[in-house]
Amino acid sequence: MSPSTSNITFDAVLFDLDGVVIDTTELHYRVWEEFARERGYVPTREELLATNGRRAGETLRAWFGAELDDEQVAALTDDREQAFHRLLDHEPVFAVPGVGAYLMSLKQAGVPWALGTSALARNAERALDRVGLQHLFPVRVTSTDVVRGKPDPEVYLKAAAALGVSPHACVVFEDAVAGLRAARAAGAACVAVATSFPREVLVRERPDWLVRDFRDLPQALRPGSHGLTGLMAPHP
Length: 236
Prior knowledge:
Elements: E1 12-15, H1 25-38, H2 45-49, H3 56-64, H4 70-90, H5 99-109, E2 113-116, H6 121-130, E3 140-141, H7 154-163, E4 170-174, H8 177-186, E5 189-193, H9 199-204, E6 209-211
Parallel strand pairs: 1-2, 1-4, 2-3, 4-5, 5-6
């Protein structure tokens, strides 16, 4: 934990989805690689990593040309999402270890939370349903709700606003470089979850905390601690 966050009381928690709530990172990489190869593009591992936290349209234009118009991007995005849905529906997927218990502890302590994801709204619903957590995320901000994707802070600014709290009083859980930068730009503290990127890459982003998953959170991030005091009304 950095000195700047050692004495802060957080009013709310914001969660990314893929790699933070549901362990779908490798599925996304598989879909992106197969999708690109079918269209004559062979992405590097670094390019696959860069899809984390990025809106699909940004990846499509980076790989297939900035001149793609919105209609072409929409059609390609739909093709890509259908491929992901097929995998999501049939491959074994799991929640990130400890996240369900952590959400319940936040609820019991009266600490509100929201989802802030680069996924499309229908994908977020499908993914949460797949791991049985859809009922625990009534407050969601997805790529459908924003104009600018991560690392722009818009998604986290809107998630904080949806909870009625200042982003400066939020802590964000993120697994991706773009997401950590979005959290920082929003003015929130951030926790890097090492499910997608190598730890050494995440360290370079200077997160306030770096954890393996929700089973090894520091005391400051546990409800009832000095950091998360549950001062607000219980989460719905």
